[in-house]
Automatic annotation (TrEMBL):
This is GH18 domain-containing protein. Coiled coil: none annotated. Keywords: Glycosidase, Hydrolase. It comes from Meloidogyne enterolobii. PROSITE patterns: GH18_1, GH18_2.
């Protein structure tokens, strides 16, 4: 299955895309909006051309391997008609070379068995990859960052990354 996604950044630093220049991936954490004072950070605080890629932390997935947001503020809501996903993706309007990727996992999700369960069979990996592509298209992300910390089964992790890359090309 061909896709419009041309960027894949994974925790292992495998990268597909323009490698002729420096890469400056930056995490945008959805909980930074809740900080007080100068530590608070929202998408509109981003300085154009500071980063080549923004990795939006985090999305999660369930036992059916379907991706979903981790915070209600990620999506449009009563207090924010756009939601953080759209506000971050719209940064590309001011920084045309910027790529915005969804980061899946993080330390908290890595502490569960969900990653190992998802990677344990071809069917599970395919369900996750299909869900990831649907999620990226729905919310306007250019790619995906797999933030699985300390994989137990490296062979299955590599299978996941190879299959994901194949479907994103």
């Amino acid at each position: 299955m061909k896709s419009r996604f041309r960027s894949l950044y994974v925790r292992t630093c495998n990268f597909v895309g323009d490698t002729t220049g420096y890469l400056r991936p930056c995490y945008f954490t959805n909980w930074a909006q809740y900080r007080d004072g100068r530590a608070k950070f929202v998408p509109e605080d981003y300085v154009p051309r500071l980063c080549t890629h923004i990795l939006y932390a985090f999305a999660q997935f369930n036992s059916s391997f379907i991706l979903s947001p981790t915070d209600p503020a990620d999506l449009p809501n009563e207090s924010d008609p756009k939601g953080l996903y759209q506000r971050v993706v719209e940064l590309k309007n001011y920084d045309y070379a910027l790529k915005v990727l969804i980061s899946v996992g993080g330390w908290t999700l890595s502490q569960t068995s969900l990653f190992e369960d998802m990677m344990s069979s071809k069917e599970n990996r395919t369900a996750f990859i299909t869900s990831s592509i649907i999620f990226m298209r729905k919310y306007g992300f250019d790619g995906i960052d797999i933030d699985y910390e300390y994989p137990k089964n490296k062979e299955n992790f590599n299978l996941l990354l190879r299959n994901l890359l194949k479907h994103l090309k």
